[in-house]
Amino acid sequence: MSDPSVRATERKITRYRGQDAKEMQDAVTVEEPLEIRVDGTSVAVVMRTPGDDLDLTRGFLLTEGMVQKPSDIFEISQCPSQETETGSGNVVDVLLTNPETVDLKALSRNVYTSSSCGICGRATLESVFQQFPSIESEFVIKHELLATLSDQLREAQQTFAQTGGLHASALFDAEGKLLLVREDVGRHNALDKVIGHEWQAGRTPMTNRLLLVSGRVSFELMQKALCAGIPFVSGISAPSSLAIDCAEEGNQTLIGFLRGETMNVYAHPERLLS
Fold this sequence. Notes:
Low-confidence stretches: 109-119
CATH topology of the largest domain: Cytidine Deaminase, domain 2
Number of helices: 9
Distance between the termini: 45 Å
């Protein structure tokens, strides 16, 4: 059983209940990168909530076809780290029994950093902002308009209404008008569809747009929104700790639990007008 204390943290938020706003601490899910190294080669960085990391690594190696049976792993260990929010190690080292049978280069994925043991959220953020600068935008939206967006999204999710099994990403303007919505079984795919459509149409960076996603807001979604120049991101569910950090660094307003007039503002509340 993994330690549940590493799965949540607290962040300062502004909580709205109608027109009433209150500063308070709120529990958010921890999200941190886990680097997987096989025989000294970084093969992946996966964003996860800490806990059961060795099992996660084993499952990853199995499903990626790198191992076939438990005896294929000679040794597996987690590197300690002093730089993470949770204090748990964010690198897993794996030694294979027969490394010559695996083409590590062919299986390697994009790795944010392959620095010394102890990859952490800060290193990941620094890597992101080497690629994408923080957003400069004068976009603002009224609280009363923001409260209407979740209903608009729900009405536009035709496939979700039929199946109940799809995520959605939607773009709105400063007047609260729905401009574009895309659905997909994967929330990252839905956002990629939105960004790809606007990019093809020559409408990026989207510094005058608000993004609403149907589920939780992860670091990957914030990174994609940063890449597209979107200054305002809202989610129907919760953001993770690293998503909040990314929003703060990227000068992006981040709202979670957007359900009518109820919402939590996690970063840059100045874009939300009373």
